[in-house]
From TrEMBL:
It comes from Pedobacter terrae. Belongs to the ArsC family. InterPro entries: Arsenate_reductase-like (IPR006660), Thioredoxin-like_sf (IPR036249), Tscrpt_reg_Spx/MgsR (IPR006504). SUPFAM superfamilies: Thioredoxin-like. This is Transcriptional regulator, Spx/MgsR family. PANTHER family: ARSENATE REDUCTASE (PTHR30041), PROTEIN YFFB (PTHR30041:SF8). Transmembrane segments: none annotated. Pfam families: ArsC (PF03960).
Amino acid sequence: MTVYGIPNCNTVKKALDWLKAHQIDFEFHDFKKKGITSEKLNEWCNTFGWETVLNRKGLTWKKLTKEEQAKIDNQDLAIAYLKENTSAIKRPVIAQNNKAILIGFDDDNYLKTLT
């Protein structure tokens, strides 16, 4: 299992604590340090929808003007933006067998999917 995220994100911390408490082994991929590929972002967008992968609640997105935000209106533009601004990726993304299965953190979803 791989957890994609950034270590100082509170939601990522909750997810990592949950996984540790449930004794689930994982590898952590810090996409601030290791980056993220367009292929991986495309996969996540195809799985969850680009509107979900693009974190519109975060500071990175909110720093954009309304005009800049309005221009990101499809998956290709969202992926281009997310490659340059990895902090705007909703996190964490949990992958099992190299396939994304969860995005964000929700205790009930983690229980249903991972236990």
